[in-house]
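User: For this week's homework, look closely at the record that follows, marking any run of repeated tokens, and judge whether sequence predicts the tokens.
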Amino acid sequence: MEENKEKNTRYILILVALLLLTALSIYLFFTKKELDENSIGGNSEQAEEVLDQTEEGTSVGSEILMSIISPEGESFEKGQARMWEAQLDGIEADKSFKATCHWQFYFNENNEETLYEEMENSSIVEKEDPTLCGFTSTFIESRGKLRVKLTAEIRNGYGEILEMLSTERNYTVL
């Protein structure tokens, strides 16, 4: 009799375990199905939103112009701390973009232009704040005619180059 009780207890435990596994499997099946429907396109609003973001990320604007806006004026003193900064005009997209900037500073020495310094930096640019690639430095320690050239790559969130822009500006260093 004792043996029959043990066998019945084992059968009941196995049956309960099987019922729990079946219930868990059914729960996971329906949960996974619901997740798959939402991620594959069951939610058309999300799909449209992703398409809109992709389309917006392909253009900064139709006529983008870049200019060096700082330092202001046409001259400054050597060794003086200066803010170097550019600005984009004509941004139409309401998104932010990454800008990678390559600055080149040329001095005209003895009627021959020579590369004085190069620098690379990056920043984020957007319609609300069109300034880019700003930095402050005192590295100009020579006097003379200075030509500053800036080349910027504007990229979308996927890292694709949307615009390659270049500008320059001349200064006199006193």
Q: What stands out?
A: Residues 2-42 form the longest helix (41 residues). The first strand starts at residue 65 and ends at 70. The chain is about 30% helix and 45% strand.
